[in-house]
Amino acid sequence: MPDPASPVVTRIAPSPTGKLHIGNARTALFNWLYARHTGGTFLLRVEDTDRERSTAENVEVIFEGFAWLGLDFDAAPVFQHARADRHRAAAAEMLARGSAYRDYMTPEELAEERERARAEGRTIRSPWRDAPAPAGAGKPFVVRLKAPREGETLVEDLVKGPVVFRNDQLDDLILLRADGSPTYNLAVVVDDHEMGITHVIRGDDHLNNAARQTLIYQALGWGPPAFAHLPLIHGPDGAKLSKRHGAEAVSDFAGMGYLPEALRNYLARLGWGHGDDEIFSDAQAISWFEIADVVSAPARLDWAKLNHVNQHYIRLADDARLAGLVDEVLKSREAHRPPDLAERLARAIPVVKEGAKTILELADLVLFALKERPVAVDEKLKAALAGEGRERLGRLALALSDASDWSAEGMAGTLKRFAEGEGVGLGKVGPILRPILAAGAVAPDLASALFALGRAEALARIQEVLSHVQ
Ligand code: GLU
Predict the structure, then answer these.
(1) The domain containing residue 224 runs over which residues?
(2) pLDDT digits (tens, 9 = 90+) for 58-67
(3) In a domain, 222, yes or no
(4) Which protein residue's CA is at the shortest distance from atom 7 of ligand 1?
């Protein structure tokens, strides 16, 4: 356990696999919240020891994912691969201390020992643990930890409580492979120690590693950090979250139109909570966040709740920012983008944003305002315009061109007075006006749609329909 008086240092240590899993994003968020809550430091370590997968693009995915999510680091990233010499030096130190040994078993001998160990229900044992080095130089070896065979290893987990592992069930894990490359558990311990990490907060799929890593800390004579293992995120069906639940990477959620601040808020609630608060700011989450409030049961992704939180943040979001995001969606859909797109979006977004749960929905909701004229006249509109309808639409165009207040409220008043003047209900106005305003898309209520289109566009659409329908 770290000294309670020393400043907190946390880290997120993703491997560059080509995506940033939402579980990793949540783990990063908790580390970030805890560092910010305590006035500590939040670090990034890229675990790029798998040289095939650790391409520049895959590393970039990690940087972009955290940048998008709005999690900032307090120092430049540490690259694990570049520290292999440090890992080897630690293994050498363990050899010198007698807490590790060179194991010269051949692959065939190891396979046989593995069979025997399985049959006897025990961990594998190397004959080299207590034997002197073989005669003759150059025999290949791996370096193994000389793990205690008796007693227990205790992991005082801040989420799970004390977790006890029987040492006879922990094997002499490999520290350096035959080619001299360090293994995952060695690298993590050396890096966490040398980066001064005080709190290792990560997914509970690493709980077993915490026991192994504790043994390595002991073998090096170092004090282990505090461990906090978070329950994994499950899908709505209770299975570990994966692509088949609809999304698993941060980029999937971004592509589905979730805002980063909404995701931060929602992810904070997955496995942690402050009373019943569902919606809160970063500042609130930072001031409230305690590891003690992390729950140990797996958290389930709930799309309805996420949508609710996202809708809230879309409502709060700046309209110009939303316009930019909608434009990205339009581009990715290769949708029509009229030359005066910016003005059209500026008018339409405030009118429809209340109803949008995602940016994709917002992009659907503004479509009516982006259609080029002439708008299509379908059979239904034709029928509505037959007989009295066409004349009425003509009179409506006049009323609209005379309207003095082209706000949504003003339009509501104009439509009401128009219907009264015609001696009909609004039910007679909707069928002739709505299809023209909607132009084949979804439109908000008539008054809002008129406001969003603006006088010139609304009247031009109506005039064109009048001139096409005789
Ligand atoms: N690279 C590991 C992972 O992505 C990190 C494990 C750890 O946080 O210690 O799961």
Answers:
(1) 81-230
(2) 999 999 999 9
(3) yes
(4) 13
